[in-house]
Design goal:
Layout: E1 2-9, H1 13-22, E2 27-34, H2 40-47, E3 53-57, H3 58-66, E4 75-78, H4 82-95, E5 104-106, E6 128-129, H5 138-151, E7 157-160, H6 166-171, E8 176-178, H7 183-203, E9 207-213, H8 227-244, E10 250-253, E11 258-263, H9 264-270, H10 278-286, E12 292-298, H11 301-317, E13 322-325, E14 330-333, E15 340-343, H12 349-358, H13 362-375, E16 379-380, H14 382-389, H15 393-405, E17 409-414, E18 424-429
Parallel strand pairs: 1-2, 1-3, 3-4, 5-6, 5-7, 7-8, 12-13
Antiparallel strand pairs: 9-11, 9-12, 10-11, 13-14, 14-15, 16-18, 17-18
Length: 436
């Protein structure tokens, strides 16, 4: 669960609290309130190490900026934007229909670059805009300036962005309105923070991508009228699994499959060190259709995604729920009595060209070369393939038939001198034979 610290003025806490309920499924919020500006810097420096990110109001950001504080973690701030500002002005004009805006004072020029207050006035009008430096006595000085303008008769209404002076203005008989960031604006900032933290967590660890496929997700399949419902059900199940197990997972729906972005650390947790795919088990329990998952681990998205696609294809071909290709290139089949590991051969340009020329998957070529290296012979039976790749005889025969159809495997018969009966079928494999 993402942990976010929130620094907010004491009187503005109620504006941010609703966000906690809205985001409770995705992050954990802890609030720190201040009454004096001098409290902001200690609040940040004493607490930021305990969080993945910090969010604060615009004034707190200005205080830390003026104190030359360097943010060590993702740190965002929110403030009223143009949408909030003009929406508030509309409500004020409705509440005070005879209001003369030349007799209104604003105290947040410079507080935001989005709102150019001077542009609201005519050339011959005096703009009552309070400009103050950020000091320890900021609130006191701000309060005095509002009261002074009001008592001088120049101002009928004060519009402030600082909730900590609102009650005191009222006590002094000053008509005042508060303009703050709307719930929508605040939520937008938190959404950006959550997204940045997720990407940061993934970039700081080795990337793992899962590719999930199923015929039940493809609308074009014959009589598959539930594809859209199945996609929604799968997405919901993935979200629930991530939440229940406190995992960092970004789930994206592609055209006919789903992708999961996570870290190797979380994948190791999900698969009990690559020995048991708990996600597959959870999906099997909650989905009325079968799925295949291919996991790929790499230093970047492209590498991990490519491995995930190959692993998914392998799971489909071998009729197993999931396969994993590790960062070092090991192909692992979890959810078996013994963890099956195949060290894939190095992906050289020659192998890549051979794969493209013969229209045979690179992984299949690597697997067969691995078996040839282990057995020290290129004459293999279906039983040999099945034993070394931990697949069924049926799957082994399918592989050998494909190699034969491509012209890289020749069927031969070998009869052992000490054994009776008909000769045993072997396939003599030579990938370079198919190049000619």
């Amino acid at each position: 669960m993402i942990r976010i610290g929130v620094i907010v003025a004491h009187n503005s806490l109620q504006d941010v609290l609703p966000i906690k309920e809205q985001l409770k499924e995705r992050c954990e919020l802890t609030f720190f309130t201040y009454k004096k500006l001098s409290e902001i810097k200690p609040l940040y420096l004493e607490n930021y190490l305990f969080f993945d990110a910090v969010v604060m109001n615009g004034l707190a950001h200005l205080v830390l900026q003026s104190s030359n504080v360097i943010y060590q973690i993702p740190t965002y701030y929110y403030m009223a934007n143009e949408r909030d500002f003009y929406k508030k002005l509309f409500h004020i004009s409705r509440e005070y229909p005879n209001l003369d805006f030349s007799k209104v004072t604003f105290d947040f020029s410079g507080y935001t670059d989005l709102i150019k207050l001077e542009e609201l006035y005519l050339n011959n009008e005096e703009a009552h805009i309070i400009h103050l430096d950020i000091t320890d006595n900021f609130y006191g000085e701000l309060l005095e300036r509002h009261i002074e303008l009001n008592r001088s008769g120049k101002v009928d209404l004060s519009i402030t962005a600082f909730s900590n002076i609102l009650d005191k203005l009222s006590e002094q008989g000053v008509n005042a309105e508060l303009i703050t960031a709307s719930p929508e604006t605040i939520l937008e900032v938190f959404e950006k923070v959550i997204l940045e933290v997720r990407h940061k967590q993934l970039s700081e660890s080795i990337m793992a991508i899962g590719e999930i496929t199923s015929d039940a997700l493809i609308p074009s399949k014959i009589e598959n009228t539930n594809a859209e419902f199945n996609q929604s059900l799968l997405h919901t199940t993935l979200l629930e699994y991530s939440k229940k197990n406190h995992l960092t997972m970004i789930i994206q729906k592609q055209s006919v499959h789903f992708e999961i972005f996570t870290s190797q650390k979380d994948l190791l947790t999900m698969t009990n060190n690559f020995s048991q795919d708990a996600l597959v088990e959870a999906l099997s329990e909650n989905l009325p259709f079968a799925i295949n998952i291919g996991w790929g681990i790499g230093q970047n998205i492209d590498e991990a995604r490519k491995k995930a696609h190959i692993a998914n294809h392998e799971a489909h071909q071998q009729e197993k729920p999931s396969f994993i290709i590790t960062e070092s290139g090991q192909l692992i089949s979890p959810n078996t009595e013994e963890k099956v590991v195949l060290q894939m051969t190095e992906e050289t340009p020659e192998l890549q060209r051979l794969s493209e020329k013969l229209n045979i998957s690179l992984l299949l070529i690597q697997k067969i070369l691995s078996v040839i290296e282990k057995t020290n012979t290129n004459e293999l039976s279906s039983a040999d393939i099945a034993l070394h790749l931990d697949i069924t005889i049926r799957s082994s025969n399918r592989i050998l038939n494909e190699l034969e159809s491509k012209g890289v495997a020749e069927l031969i018969y070998k009869k052992h001198e000490k054994l009776r009966g008909r000769p045993k079928k072997f396939y003599k494999i030579n990938f370079h034979q198919g190049e000619s």
